[in-house]
Amino acid sequence: MKLRVIDSHGHLQDEDFQPDREQVYDRTIKEGVGLIVPGYTMESSAKAVAFAESHPGTWALVGIHPHDSKDKKPGDLEQLRAWVTEQPKVVGIGEIGLDYHYNNSPPEVQRTVFREQLELAEELQVPAAVHTREAEEDTWAIIREVGITRGVIHCFTGSADFAQQMLELGWYISFSGAITFKSAHALRQVVEAVPLDRILVETDSPYLSPVPWRGQRNEPLRVIRVAEVVAAQKNCLTQQVFEQTVSNTIRLFSVTPEIG
Ligand SMILES: [Zn+2]
Q1: Which of 115, 139, 167, 192 could form a disulfide with 132 if both were Cys (CB 3.0 to 4.6 A apart)?
Q2: In a domain, 89, yes or no
Q3: Which domain holds residue 249?
Q4: How close is the Cα of 134 to the center of ligand 1, in Å?
Q5: Is 180 inside a domain boundary?
Q6: Domain with 201 in it: what CATH number?
Q7: DSSP assignment, residue 42?
Q8: What number is the average pLDDT over the span 146-167?
Q9: Is residue 260 part of a domain?
Q10: Ligand 1 centroid from CA 227, angstroms
Q11: Residue 258: which pLDDT band, with cuts at 50, 70 and 90?
Q12: What is the four-CA torsion angle of 243, 130, 146, 71, rounded to 10 degrees?
């Protein structure tokens, strides 16, 4: 079976899915929806790797989120490297980045840990999935300095200028349920401006459920709703968004969209 669409970012390894993880996975894959599961700590990265290893149509990313960069320990980078080089279902480094909204880790620590992980991705020739909030300038500058041209800004909620800058660096833009929110007019204009061959779609499950499920636990199947809204902005068929975003995801992450 070929995958119809791929949720490029969903945390199915999370606690929130403890009660019914296998059922959520089953109904996702039954609809032909694939999934990339990013880590955000060493522990959640290990869980993402184990999940992807045992679930066809899913892949893992490993990395330390900006919130948790203060907890990075000696040896963590070596473990990330080992996962990428030894586990075939690990397809990149993520999610990593900068978050100056919460500053759960000191900004200078965030920048150091972000740069180290980007350099690792560049060295291993794998893409990076980046979270950025109120930190567009530094995010762009560090990515540009490291010189990594394979990556995606996940759950894009930024400015049109930032999207343009990232496109110029060769990066992809991933849209989430945030584009369905009533007030997200400016964001929907960014969807309009980004060429379809540079767009990925995601849920960021369990967060950010699209309208009409806003506030509920999100799940990968709802990536279909995100694709529908992208299609509406692009004035094209949802099927086209499915096909194009699947081929974009294959190109970026080198995944094989076959299951079973
Ligand atoms: Zn995430």
Answers
A1: 139
A2: yes
A3: 5-253
A4: 16
A5: yes
A6: 3.20.20.140
A7: H
A8: 97
A9: no
A10: 18
A11: confident
A12: -150
| Distance between Cα 13 and ligand 1 center (Å) | 11
Q: Measured in angstroms, how far is the CA atom of residue 65 from the centroid of ligand 1?
A: 9
pLDDT tens digit string along 187-224? Answer: 999 999 999 999 999 999 999 999 999 999 999 999 99
Q: Name residues with Cβ closer than 5 Å to ligand 1, which is an ion.
A: 204
Rounded to the nearest whole angstrom, what is the distance from the C-alpha of residue 126 to the centroid of ligand 1? 18
Structural domain count, the chain: 1
Q: Report the separation in Å between the CA atom of 70 and the middle of ligand 1, taken as the mean of its atom positions.
A: 18
- pLDDT above 80 for 257: no
* Residue 48 is assigned to a structural domain of this protein: yes
Under a CB-based contact definition with an 8 Å cutoff, are residues 118 and 143 in contact? yes
Q: Identity (one letter) of the amino acid at 51?
A: F
Each residue of 5-42: b (16+ CB within 10 Å) or e? bbbbbbbbbbebbeeeeeebbeebbeebbbbbbbbbbb
